[in-house]
Amino acid sequence: MIQGNDRQLTMINSLLEINSCEKQGIEIKIEPVQFSTLLGGTFTQLEPMLTQNQATLKNLVPADLPLVMADGTRLQKVLVNLIAHSLHNNPPGLNFTLSATVEGGMIRTQIQDDGVGMSKLECDRLFDLHVRDPQDCCSTSIGLKMYLCRKVIKAHGGEIGVMSNRKRGLTFWFTLPLATSSATNRP
After folding, report:
1. Which end of the chain is more exposed for a tag (fewer CB within 10 A), N or C?
2. Which sign does the torsion angle of CA 23, 28, 29, 32 carry?
3. Minimal CA–CA distance to 79: which of 101, 102, 51, 50?
4. Cα separation, 91 vs 108, whole angstroms
């Protein structure tokens, strides 16, 4: 019962956040952030979820990446939501690989899993706000967390997406702008 209440509270909070961001835009506090340091806090948040699902996470993110312009708290939520999505849609024992590279003034982050993939249509709709399929009587999902992930990344000036291979799982990716001297000197 407590878990059900927690899920409902999370959904209500997500709906309130979506309503607010639709009316006023999403509020982010951007500052230069060391991406590898941010990941340390994210891994701490993920540890219980990974353990409960017998999942592993291999971190291939270089420690010497340049600073990114980001809201650290919001970015941690994005990472947690992407991994939670895969955990929720796969049996226990999932393996994740996290990597990041610098590409044209952006850091491109990838989270790859070895679970079940999705169809192209599912990939195309994953970050859209949608009401559950009436034919799927077991689903209660309306895509709140994935929709918020897209809103947060776009508010940072980045892009987000997912690629799928039915036999090798999903690869979530997103980009964030590097912290340049002009960006870090803004008032």
Report:
1. C
2. negative
3. 50
4. 28
- Write the DSSP assignment of the chain as a string of letters: -HHHHHHHHHHHHHHHHHHHHHHH------EEE-HHHHHHHHHHHHHHHHHHTT-EEEE---TTPPPEEE-HHHHHHHHHHHHHHHHHTS-S--EEEEEEEEETTEEEEEEEESS----HHHHHHTTS--PPPTT-TT-----HHHHHHHHHHHHTT--EEEEEETTTEEEEEEEEEB--HHHHT--
Strands 56-59, 95-103: pairing kind = parallel
Which domains, ranges and CATH numbers included, belong to the chain?
29-184 (3.30.565.10)
Antiparallel, parallel or unpaired: β 106-113 and 95-103:
antiparallel
Quick one: pLDDT at residue 26?
82
Tokens 């991994």 -> residue? 83
Least confident residue range of 18-22, 28-32, 87-91? 18-22
Provide the CB-side half-sphere exposure for 155 (13 A, CA): 20
